[in-house]
């Protein structure tokens, strides 16, 4: 029996009921939530043997009945453990689960009793898998939360519109994909520093302007600007209200994601005047915005899957402080050109999976600070520019 412990880390969820201390402040689960032994013990030996013998027989109805029965028994036990924890450790400040290996399944749904943990500052549900794709509205009781991670390992999940109550939030990680019924108001989160997986289907674009302290913003598509003035971009209202934003991540992949509207991208980038880190992972972008729409502070750019038809190097090489460029599957042309004086501070360049690239021309004087060059899966590239050898010799000297 443990009564005076304040911080606990356990590798099996089932052990939690052995802890009787009501004063626990921090609880960390790691490795397997439910090890294989726990599932095996939930089934009679005869049933377990039958399930193991027929695991490759997808058309056997008895196999599925027995398997689902075992999972249901485990889920019910799991729910009891959740409720025990939420009703006996009410002084918890941090609740976290870190996966290394093993099963992520933790039950049918997250019990509403989690609303009892009103002192929580840190809550992570990352990688947990629930059969019931709906989080409880009692999450709104956790008004002192500073970090909330909802990146559960479930297909589309519904998040109730209660996050706006958590005005102390500094770091918010939304699910990778929410149900269409999810619509979150986030405009009250003025202390927010990190926001990940924001999109305009489940959130309100206008709320970003109120997040005046945000440092890191991750956008998932869809990202649409309503009533957008396509003829006069300067007349569109600002999107970003923080002058401290230093990192912007844009993800637009998957079958449901359409091509990024370059005009919306231009307007977004023109609002991010202080960013030093930009990452775009996209299905396709028809064209790269002109260089003056990019922040002059950019030191790191990562472009994956953009498939530009025109050579983007004449634009990127004008960025005065760019030090790292990762360029993968982002050009469908045959020729690429870097001019003299281009990329004045570039130190690291990665070119990967440019399957149609045949010729890369580099003028003398380009990339004077280059220290690392990596080229992967560019099968049609005939030879490296002679100027790159001069750069190498200059660096060695």
From TrEMBL:
TM annotation in the entry: none
Disease resistance R13L4/SHOC-2-like LRR domain mapped to chain residues: 85-376
InterPro entries: LRR_dom_sf, LRR_R13L4/SHOC2-like
Alphabetized UniProt keyword annotations: Repeat
Protein name as annotated: Disease resistance R13L4/SHOC-2-like LRR domain-containing protein
């Amino acid at each position: 029996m443990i009564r005076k412990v304040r911080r606990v880390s356990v590798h099996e969820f089932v052990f939690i009921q052995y802890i009787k201390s009501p004063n626990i402040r921090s609880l960390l689960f790691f490795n397997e939530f439910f090890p294989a032994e726990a599932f095996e013990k939930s089934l009679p030996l005869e049933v377990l043997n039958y399930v193991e013998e027929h695991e490759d027989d997808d058309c056997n109805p008895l196999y599925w009945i027995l398997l689902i029965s075992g999972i249901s028994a485990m889920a019910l036990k799991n729910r009891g453990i959740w409720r025990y924890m939420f009703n006996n450790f009410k002084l918890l400040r941090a609740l976290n689960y870190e996966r290394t290996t093993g099963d992520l399944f933790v039950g049918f749904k997250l019990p509403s009793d989690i609303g009892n943990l009103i002192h929580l500052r840190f809550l992570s549900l990352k990688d947990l898998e629930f059969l019931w794709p709906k989080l409880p509205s009692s999450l709104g009781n956790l008004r002192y939360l500073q970090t909330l991670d909802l990146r559960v390992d479930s297909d589309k999940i519904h998040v109730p519109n209660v996050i706006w109550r958590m005005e102390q939030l500094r770091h918010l990680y939304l699910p990778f994909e929410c149900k269409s019924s999810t619509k979150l108001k986030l405009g009250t989160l003025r202390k927010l520093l990190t926001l990940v997986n924001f999109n305009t289907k489940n959130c309100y674009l206008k709320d970003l302007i109120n997040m005046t302290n945000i440092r890191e913003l991750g956008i998932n598509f869809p990202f649409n600007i309503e009533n957008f003035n396509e003829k006069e971009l300067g007349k569109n209202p600002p999107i970003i209200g923080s002058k401290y934003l230093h990192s912007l991540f844009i993800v637009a992949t998957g079958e449901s994601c359409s091509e990024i509207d370059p005009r919306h991208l231009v307007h977004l980038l023109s609002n991010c005047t202080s960013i030093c880190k930009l990452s775009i992972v996209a299905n396709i972008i028809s064209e790269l915005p002109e260089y003056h729409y990019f922040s002059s502070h950019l030191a790191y750019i990562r472009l994956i899957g953009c498939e530009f038809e025109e050579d983007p190097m004449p634009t990127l090489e004008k960025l005065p402080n760019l030090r790292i460029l990762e360029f993968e599957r982002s050009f469908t042309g045959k020729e690429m050109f870097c001019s003299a004086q281009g990329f004045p501070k570039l130190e690291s360049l990665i070119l990967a999976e440019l399957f149609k690239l045949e010729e890369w021309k580099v003028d003398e004087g380009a990339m004077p600070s280059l220290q690392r060059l990596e080229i992967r899966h560019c099968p049609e590239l005939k030879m490296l520019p002679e100027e790159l050898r001069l750069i190498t010799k200059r660096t060695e000297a």
